[in-house]
Amino acid sequence: MGETKNGALKLNFDRHLRLEFRGAKVTTDAGLLAVRELDGALVLTEMAGEMIQDNRTGRNAQHELTGLLRQSVYARLAGYEDVNDHELLLRDPAMRAAVGRKALERNAASSQTVARFEPDILTQEDNLEALASLNHSWVSKAVKSTKAKKIVLDMDSSESPVHGNQEGSAYNGHFESTCYHPLFCFNHFGDCEGAVLRPGNVHSADGWRNLLEPIVDRYKDTNKKLYFRGDAAFAIPDMYEYLEEKGILYAIRIKANNKLYEKIDHLMTRPVGRPSKRPKVLFHDFSYRAASWKKSRRVIAKVEWHQGELFPRIGFIVTNLQRKPENVVRFYNQRGICEQHIKEGKYALTWTRLSCMRFTSNQVRLALFVLAYNLGNFIRRFALPSKISHWSLRSVQLKLIKIGAKVISHSRRTIFQCAEVAVPGELFEDLLGRIRSLATVPT
Q1: Edge-to-edge strand order for the sheet containing 414-418?
Q2: CA 98 to CA 73: how far, in whole Å?
């Protein structure tokens, strides 16, 4: 590989090919313009101007808070998880256009400006609360755009490994790593209703009320029926009593014990005859009261006999649902989708990248990642045409947002000449049409 006189690079395997690098005239993230269109249709980041407090006192502030938030969130959705990435993004034409018209006329915010915005301005106590409120407002707008009469809430914890001495990190024996132990709550549309960063050594259910209560209160004046699912970590009396008090229907897995096994003793005899290839599944429901419970509750038992296995697989679920036992189990098993959402946040957005030394700074980073995740999920829910509606968040990132484009500027307009690979022009036009229809939906 060599260099020509005009600065283009030659390739030895084919002397007819040349490479030119024109950072301000070419972008690899033209799909961010569709993200900005959705943002504008639902009026999402514009809320930040009223909610986030600006403590900057100087007269030379070149970037508004709304634009800074937009840049921080969009960059994460595009796969740029580090503040240092903004040093190159500040000249990217797609980012400049998405941040705002003034940014298109000049550079977007530098990495130094973003570094002051995230760990300085956003770490103020009022702004930490504002970020959570902003996410609640985003999800509320998205839910109001649907006609669903019920909302299913799934709560689960996760691991965010650290590789330094970050404040609040600790060794967690379950994950066998030094980490943070964040707690998430998703609805059945895939929206992240809320997230809280916690020290690495806390119990999986620690702080569940502080996360769940604001979410439940937000749905109080709506006509939507709430459901809740959780694994055995959330099988605690306080959780049952809270959900029952609020009229929320739930299905929560509970750990087995001898008393529960006694209730299904009649199902523990191995079926007679040659075992079939398909497992033989038996269900049983009964009333049960643990020593720590104030009253008896309904418990569903599922017993599975598998070919080649000496003992059955057994699971217990405590519930206040009145459905048939097999339907309750089927409803509970769908909570696996929540784990899939967490994996998307981990692998598409790398929201485990919590590398700041201060705990509050990492709280801000997680909150921004959640906003980026929800923005990507809104694209998937509302904008993708039926042909590509099955795309994962990773596919949205790689095939839609990562569209290459050549930028041509005229006196009155700027043109992005986009590559047609995964998303041809007709499909992109359909996508924009779906987004624009959202602007006419009352929220």
Answers
A1: 26-27, 405-409, 414-418
A2: 11
DSSP secondary structure letters along 139-173: HHHHHHTS--SEEEEEEEE--EE-SS--TT-EEET
- The region of weakest confidence among 24-33, 241-250, 288-297, 374-383 is 24-33
Of 70, 75, 6, nearest in space to 38 by CA: 70
**Tokens of residue 311, six digits:** 């003992």
Question: Using one digit for the tens of pLDDT, what is the confidence trace for 145-173?
Answer: 888 899 999 999 999 999 989 999 999 99
What is the domain partition of the chain in residue ranges?
Answer: 232-334
Rounded to an integer, what distance in angstroms lies between the CA atom of residue 317 and that of residue 340?
21
pLDDT of 197 over the 80 cut? yes
Residue 74 · residue 107 · CB < 8 Å: no
Half-sphere exposure of 115 (CA within 13 A, CB side): 11
Cβ neighbors of 273 (< 8 A, separation 6 or more) are none
Q: Is the dihedral of CA 422, 426, 432, 437 positive or negative?
A: negative
**Token code pair at residue 362:** 């990492």
Cα separations (Å) of 52 from 131, 132, 259, 266, 319? 8, 11, 53, 60, 40
Residue 10's pLDDT is 75
The single-letter DSSP state of residue 289 is: -
**pTM attached to this predicted model:** 0.91
- Strands (E) located in 88-240: 150-157, 160-161, 170-172, 177-180, 183-187, 192-196, 225-230
Taken as a whole, the chain contains a residue count of: 443
Taking 80 as the threshold, does the pLDDT of residue 12 lie above it? no
Q: Which residue has the tokens 């801000």?
A: 364
